[in-house]
Amino acid sequence: MRKSIKFGLGAALALSLGASAALAENIKIAFIDPLSGPFASTGSNGLSQYEFAAETLVNEKGGVLGGQKFEIVAFDNKISPKESLIQLQVAIDQGIRYVVQGNSSGVAHALTEAIEKHNKRNPDNRVLYLNYSAVDPALTNENCNFWHFRFDANADIKMDALTDVIAQNDAIKKVYIIGQDYSFGKAVASAAVSMLGEKRPDIEIVGNELHPIGKVKDFTPYARKIVSSGADAVITGNWGSDMLGLGKSVLENGFTGPIYTYYAAADGITAAFGETGKGSLRLVSEGPLNPIASDRAADYVTAFKAKYPDGNVSQARITNLIEMLAKAIDQAGTATDVVAVGKALEGMEIDSLWGGKILMRPQDHQAIQNVHVFAHTDEGVQFDYDNSGYGMVVENSVEMASADSETTCKMKRP
Predict the structure, then answer these.
(1) pLDDT tens, position by position, 227-236
(2) Do 132 and 171 sit in the same domain of this protein?
(3) How many CB atoms lie within 10 A of CB 71?
(4) Would you say residue 369 has pLDDT above 60?
(5) Are 267 and 386 found together in one domain?
(6) Do 392 and 265 belong to one domain?
(7) Mean pLDDT across the stretch 70-80?
(8) Which residues are the signal sequence here (predicted)?
(9) Same domain for 380 and 234?
(10) Distance between terminal CA atoms of the chain?
């Protein structure tokens, strides 16, 4: 009898300790993006932003579910879809239920397809994919699925804002479109042609070409074609080293018109352009720093710079993602049942740290938010990029951009 009582007390104690350990266990989030190679600076700065957002916006406030903390686990995908799938499997084998990725829509397509297949085969070990920057519209249209949520405005939403600005500029008669040769670059080009045709049918497209992603060492031949075409403006979705290489070469070869971009800021790009980018570079994005939305946002940026002096708070969508994920987990009452967390994310609305609201549109899992067109300048800059004195200042804004836009998504829910 006494032996039986001792066993019962020991089992109870073990269960209690096990419950406490489970409660205290971190919620791991796999960050799968480039940490080496030509796009390493983009991935590394994104990782810093995730680590800071998790610590500041979640962990320091007591975590989720009464005390569980977020932990960002980094995986270097070398910007390769094949390597990304290898790293995804490593993350799943480690029991990680949440994956964040943003650099390259080619990678995004590989991940969303693999995660959908994994979740069908492994209903007890499902994974959510939180896409923070891969903006091929197909990901929330014909290739949508329940497990994928996009926190950035897609390429069509951004192009809608850019072409509104271009359409208002009567001096622009000829446009040259150039981008990286993969799904996102093609989506940007297609949207530019279509939307300019609708809004300014008088504008002539004098160039529309794609180049290999991450492989061009000298953009001079492309720049000379742009200048010789007589283009009044350039549109490009290039990012990372390809954005820097193209932009610098175009300006060095004498182009003086506006260059409308998706990613011409931070990660060394702003510092490299410096004075040469003033009056030329335009950026479509979310989350303005100049002007900053609030004292809370200003304090956040200041604290980030104190911890990462060489870093930039250049992707407001990262903080939006972290705050929405934390809210969804608390609402679902679980971090392990990702179906419940996903359903909590659907239709969720939050007040963004950067001003305005963020709505996760339930029908296609596309975040709807304010979108801005910025100018590269050193005037009116409270928070610069790359410690350069230059930053991005808001010129035009669209509230809850494309909130009523159509989607071809036919989502099957678990």
Answers:
(1) 999 999 999 9
(2) no
(3) 15
(4) yes
(5) yes
(6) yes
(7) 97
(8) 1-24
(9) yes
(10) 49
Q: Express each pLDDT in 309-341 by its tens digit.
A: 999 999 999 999 999 999 999 999 999 999 999
Distance CA 243, CA 233 (A): 16
- Classify 8 as helix, strand or coil: helix
Q: What are phi and psi of 293, to 5 degrees?
A: -75, -35
The sign one gets for the Cα dihedral 114, 79, 106, 350 is positive
CB count in 10 Å sphere of residue 16: 10
What's the number of domains the chain is made of? 2
Domain that holds residue 377: 156-291+371-398
Q: Which of 106, 46, 33 is nearest to 267 (CA)?
A: 46
Quote the tokens at residue 253: 């070869």
Going by C-alpha positions, the residue among 169, 182, 178 that lies closest to residue 207 is 178
CB atoms within 10 A of CB 66: 8
What torsion do the CA atoms of 75, 46, 263, 88 make, to the nearest 10 degrees?
20
Collapsing DSSP to helix, strand or coil, 131 comes out as strand
| Distance (Å) of CA 315 to CA 26, 249, 277, 330 | 24, 26, 20, 24
CB atoms < 10 A from the CB of 207, how many?
Answer: 19
C-beta separation of 319 from 353 below 8 A: yes
Please list, in sequence order, all residues whose beta carbon lies within 8 angstroms of the beta carbon of residue 302, skipping any fewer than 6 positions away: none
Tokens of 73: 């686990």
Q: 189: how many CB neighbours lie within 10 A of its CB?
A: 22
Is the link from the previous residue into 291 a cis peptide, with omega within 30 of 0? yes
Q: Render 74-118 in DSSP notation, one character per residue.
A: EEE-TT-HHHHHHHHHHHHHTT--EEEE-S-HHHHHHHHHHHHHH
